Amino acid sequence: MPELRQNRFTKEWVIMATERAKRPEELRAQREARPSLPHYSDTCPFCPGNERLAPPAVMAIPAHDNWRVRVVPNKFPALAREGQLTRKIERSRRSMNGIGIHDVIVETPDHALTTALLPVEQVAEILRCYRQRFTEVSADPRIAHVTIFKNHGVAAGTSLEHPHAQLIGTPVISSQVRYRVYEALRHYDEFGECIFCEALKEDLEEPARVVLASELFVAVEPFASGTPFATYIYPRRHMASFGDINPAEIIDLAAVLKSVLAKLYVGLRNPDFNYAIRTAPHENAGVLYYHWYVSVIPRLTRIAGFELGSGMFINTVLPEAAAEFLRDINPQDGGPVA
Ligand SMILES: [Zn+2]
Ligand SMILES: [Zn+2]
Questions:
Q1: Which residues have their alpha-adjacent CB atom under 5 A from ion ligand 1?
Q2: Which of 171, 182, 225, 235 would be a feasible disulfide site paired with 230, CB 3.0-4.6 Å?
């Protein structure tokens, strides 16, 4: 019989359709292996030597030539970088002018190397760059919230194949983010603990959904996962804001993030995926009740009418089965164990 599970952080219900459940191996079998990319493309605005095709850099590591990570303003930004915020209220209509920051983070000079294939030190460099831009953009008084995310592959919404992530600083906090912060606060007021720290402790005691645990981070399949192989990476130390990550945690997270993405790359044959850093808004930095994490979502299924109409997801892969499958994959071997 199918099972309904509730996401304790959002109160959303998910249908675990065990009757129509696919085994993880079957999802992988449906995928075609994709052709490998060249290491350089002369029309790519993010390849070294083509810098003139993109707007001037906001920052680079190192700052001179031979950069390893580079940040440029998005050429087609969702929000305008310059200007003052004005809020308009006309009868029932509320609006604002679209001010914000929209960066592209070019993650490697190599056109072909997705995160799963990068050295851990390069992934750490990328995370250092995320943190620096996160801190700088958060300090802009016009910005209320910063989201850092990556789209990999067409199903995940990317149009450029060169490995890159994006940062969008918005002048408002979305109602979804607000609601999660409120729910976490409500839990804290009732039980006197961070709901995320508590869930993490429980997951480590009953590790059926743990994919891997390092010294400073833990990767788990959430109990009420809405989509197959959704993986959350939590810092063990309580921190509300991504901006509070320390240098040792950056190196540890780099290894864990690379490892999770390499397991997906090998186990599910380089699936399209998104990841996003879900952090407390700037105004909630330092609070005891919210806890940031990285949400990695492989795009193996499509959102269809029921999801749109009800706000409920149907997941055909049990998180426990997904965790077991991913635990058994050793990317160094090039495939699933056994
Ligand atoms: Zn390129
Ligand atoms: Zn916590």
A1: 41, 44, 46-47, 111, 162
A2: 225
